[in-house]
Write a structure and sequence with these properties.
Keywords: ATP-binding, Kinase, Nucleotide-binding, Serine/threonine-protein kinase, Transferase. GO terms for molecular function: ATP binding; protein serine/threonine kinase activity. This is Protein kinase domain-containing protein. This protein has 268 residues and is an alpha+beta fold. It folds into two domains: 76 residues, Phosphorylase Kinase, domain 1 (2-Layer Sandwich), CATH 3.30.200; 160 residues, Transferase(Phosphotransferase) domain 1 (Transferase(Phosphotransferase), domain 1, Orthogonal Bundle). It is built from ten helices and eight strands. The strands form two sheets. Strands 1-2-3-4-6-5 form a six-stranded antiparallel β-sheet. A two-stranded antiparallel sheet has the order 7-8. It is globular and about 55 Å long. The two termini are 34 Å apart.
Length: 268
């Protein structure tokens, strides 16, 4: 829930307050809370991911390791602009996407009574995969991709996708404890069972497939079906009563290709 006001009392006068003014709280994310700030010098809005160090021991010395993410710059990545910390919290500052994210877009389109166009979904997935391929080439992995991870540059149909939060999970929660305790419907099965690092990039590919599944038919794949079942025919057998009859064969093939067992998935 969005709440506006001055910098919260516990942050006033601290490292965050010196460089930014508080705009509003956004809510929660996997490792903490999200705020929108304004840069005191440039006046530009920023997104701040706040991580409590007492909840994630690796966060206590993560700042120096996270600064390498500031070097990752790509059209389809939401770049990390600043890393700050105090005794109890880690702050990851990144650009704010003016169009919200794909989760917001989905709700907006559906509230307007419109159908998610397959061509738009395909373009968003293409751009997201470009970002994934770039990050993976630099040995940086996401592990927690979901529709809200895909930022949009505007609210127009031709918005550019900018993937947020690449590399944060691997540094702050290297054992995937948070994801195993509270997985999203887009979390790869092997991450939940503790084998998510056997094929490092595979969880992100699964998540892109699960996001595409959700956008195409209105819900992510059922986790209890298992990757092998989805890949071997669940989509085609349930097409008539599961929304797939309204979508193209190529869209089903795309999703099926990504929702394989980890070692059988393509790379981005």
């Amino acid at each position: 829930q969005r709440s506006e006001g001055p910098m919260p009392a516990h942050l006033r006068g601290g490292v965050l307050d010196r460089k930014y003014t508080f705009e509003f709280d956004v809510g929660l994310w996997t490792l903490g809370t999200v705020q929108v700030l304004k840069d005191r010098k440039s006046g530009s809005l920023k997104q701040c991911k706040t991580v409590p160090k007492n909840s994630f021991p690796a966060a206590r010395d993560a700042a120096s390791r996270l600064r390498i993410l500031e070097e990752l710059r790509h059209t389809h990545l939401c770049g990390v602009d600043d890393i700050l910390e105090d005794a109890g919290r880690l702050f990851v500052i990144s650009e704010k996407c003016d169009g919200g994210d794909v989760a917001d877009w989905t709700v907006r389109v559906q509230e307007e009574g419109n159908w998610l166009q397959e061509q738009t979904i395909a373009e968003y997935m293409r751009q997201a995969l470009i970002a994934v391929a770039y990050a993976h080439a630099h040995k940086v992995y996401h592990r927690d991709l979901r529709p809200s991870s895909l930022g949009l540059s505007s609210k127009m149909p031709d918005a550019v996708v900018k993937v947020m939060d690449f590399g944060l999970m691997g540094v702050i929660d290297p054992e995937d404890n948070a994801l195993q305790q509270n997985p999203s419907p887009y979390t790869a099965p092997e991450v939940m069972t503790g084998f998510g690092r056997v094929v490092p990039g595979a969880p992100d590919v699964w998540s892109i497939g699960a996001i595409a599944h959700s956008l195409l038919v209105g819900h992510p794949p059922s986790q209890d079906e298992g990757a092998w079942k989805v890949g071997s025919g669940i989509l085609s057998r349930r097409a008539e009563n599961d929304g797939w009859s309204e979508r193209s064969a190529s869209s089903r093939d795309f999703v099926r290709c990504l929702l394989q067992q980890a070692e059988d998935r393509p790379t981005a």
